[in-house]
Design goal:
alpha/beta, seven-stranded parallel β-sheet, globular
Length: 246
């Protein structure tokens, strides 16, 4: 697992109580290589494994990012896996748009904030832990529907745009990160359609064999990251390791 990283490496997983985030935590703990796994979620759910530090923080707020930075200090972090994302919210009346008439400024701003701004501010907060010359991987969940080149169906305006913005922010940060840590790499990852609450309302149209379990996705994405080098920092890959068009 993650052979570029040192033994007893420190991993940080955000959105750690969600479907993919929690599966990534478990996949990491299945190996004896991580020495510390920092699991961040709004609830800060405890874990029986002594290697886990569970932090209760809302990283969609500036205060949450600042609190995370304070908790880490300048402790080197070798793996960051950001699994925070939003597609719909019944309570807020937010869902994927089918046509222009469905567009709502508030909903668009919310998705942009969660899916694009939050990962960028996470990178900002973690700079002291990512700077240096230690091997470091920063992975953030994107989506194939955020690909401009692959957009043939239309719809889902806000989600598509927020993930496209996410990808540009990560690509831009990758350029700067080369100066801050030549051993660091940033990757945007498309997990495929995963059986989680995020995709639940839209699973009926998923072809047979294309709805993945969170455990499978976590395993595949960690394998994909194993091949992500500093020379490829800023890359956009899917769960099978294939490049996704910008």
């Amino acid at each position: 697992m993650l052979t570029r990283l040192p033994d007893d490496f420190t991993a940080l997983v955000t959105g750690a109580s969600g479907g993919i985030g929690s599966a990534v935590v478990e996949a990491l703990l299945d190996s004896d290589r991580p020495g510390r796994v920092i699991a961040v979620s709004r609830g800060g759910h405890p874990h029986p494994d002594p290697r886990v530090d569970a932090l209760a923080l809302d990283l969609t707020t500036e205060e949450g990012g600042e609190a995370l930075a304070d908790a880490l200090g300048a402790t080197p972090v070798h793996l960051v896996f950001n699994a925070i994302g939003m597609l719909h919210d019944e309570q807020l009346g937010i869902g994927p748009e089918k046509k222009l008439d469905d567009l709502d400024a508030g909903a668009m701003a919310r998705l942009y904030h969660v899916n694009a701004i939050t990962p960028a501010l996470l990178l900002k907060a973690l700079q002291p832990s990512l700077k240096g010359r230690h091997p470091a991987l920063f992975a953030s969940l994107s989506a194939r529907v955020g690909s401009i080149g692959d957009n043939r169906l239309g719809g889902w305006y806000a989600y598509r745009a927020s993930k496209a913005a996410h990808n540009m922010l990560m690509k831009t940060a990758a350029v700067e990160m080369r100066r801050l840590n030549p051993q660091a790499a940033i990757a945007c990852l498309h997990p495929g359609t995963t059986d989680t609450p995020l995709s639940a309302p839209f699973q009926a149209r998923v072809p047979d064999g294309k709805l993945f379990t969170p455990a499978f996705v976590a395993e595949r994405l960690l394998e994909v990251l194993d091949a992500c080098t500093p020379e490829e920092s800023g890359i956009f890959l899917d769960w099978a390791g294939e490049r996704v068009a910008w």
